[in-house]
Design a protein that fits this description.
The complex is a heterodimer of chains A (about 100) and B (about 170). Chain A has about 100 residues and is mostly helical. Chain A is built from 4 helices and no strands. Classes of the chains: A mainly alpha (about 100), B mainly alpha (about 170).
Chain lengths: ~100, ~170
């Protein structure tokens, strides 16, 4: 209740963009496939929080429903992504994404 | 005033643990810091009066996704340092690119002013009763489609995790 009146929405925007950029940097600098999946989770979470913030500030519950659906899709994505990581580890004995350059050329 | 302090505290906690996810060398430390980020984001949901989302967030992310990550790290015995981290110039370029993205986003946000007065009815919209009514009335078809998506993902994960060749 009091959050909505004391904190302007710009602060949520700045916080969520910072979190999103940390996720982008993580995808760019890491070689471990697991940590890259975690950075993707960070980006998804920042978007979720921003959707919920706009939903709460504008009084429209549709935004929170969308956050719910994004969580569903993110859970499915992580389940498939981690099984792909396990499969990569079984074939190459490493989860370094730079090993996976067979399709590059 | 009190909620403002909590807001900044959660902000600092979330950003610090997000940075530590990237800064820690071992994947298991990254997973634990990611859990801390998820809990501080759940605190943000509670501050926004989105109680249902906060509970679902804790159950799904801290309960399910973190367990998946931890199982993968521990079962495959992946908890060792990166053998060859990326060269320094790649990291430098990545930091510059991320910083430019951040600057661009903030520059766009400064261009227009958001006049969002807080809706007085908005303290009730995050409750389970209200969200459930909307979910099962207006969004029934996407809800059922997402259950099919879940079933597909489950079948796919089991199929990919099988030992023998397909």
């Amino acid at each position: 209740m009091s959050t909505l009146t004391t904190i302007p929405i710009e602060q949520y925007l700045i916080f969520c963009s910072a979190l999103f950029c940390i996720g982008v940097i993580g995808v760019l600098i890491k070689r471990n496939a697991l940590v890259i999946l975690m950075s993707i989770e960070l980006m998804i979470n920042s978007i979720n929080l921003l959707l919920a913030a706009f939903s709460a500030y504008s009084g429209d519950p549709a935004g929170q429903i969308f956050v719910f659906f994004i969580m569903v899709v993110a859970a499915a994505e992580v389940a498939i992504g981690l099984s792909i990581v396990v499969l990569i580890y079984r074939t190459t004995h490493s989860i370094d994404i730079d090993v996976l350059n067979k399709l590059k050329w | 005033m009190f909620t403002q302090y909590i807001f900044y505290l959660l902000n600092i906690l979330a950003l610090f643990s997000a940075v530590m996810v990237l800064a820690s060398k071992k994947p298991i430390h990254s997973v634990l810091f990611l859990t801390l980020t998820f809990f501080s984001i759940a605190g943000h949901y509670i501050l926004l009066n989105a109680q249902f989302l906060a509970v679902v967030h804790v159950i799904v992310y801290a309960g399910a996704i973190m367990v998946l990550f931890l199982f993968t790290v521990m079962l495959l015995n992946l908890n060792k340092d990166e053998r060859s981290p990326k060269p320094l110039w790649v990291k430098l370029i990545a930091f510059v690119a991320g910083g430019m993205l951040m600057l661009t986003l903030i520059g766009v946000l400064r261009g227009f002013d958001l006049q969002m007065a807080a809706n007085p009815a908005s303290s009730q919209i995050g409750l389970v009763k209200n969200l459930g009514r909307i979910l099962y009335n207006d969004y029934l078809v996407p809800f059922e489609l997402s259950s099919i998506l879940f079933l597909t993902a489950m079948v796919g994960a089991v199929l990919l995790g099988k030992k023998e060749q397909l």
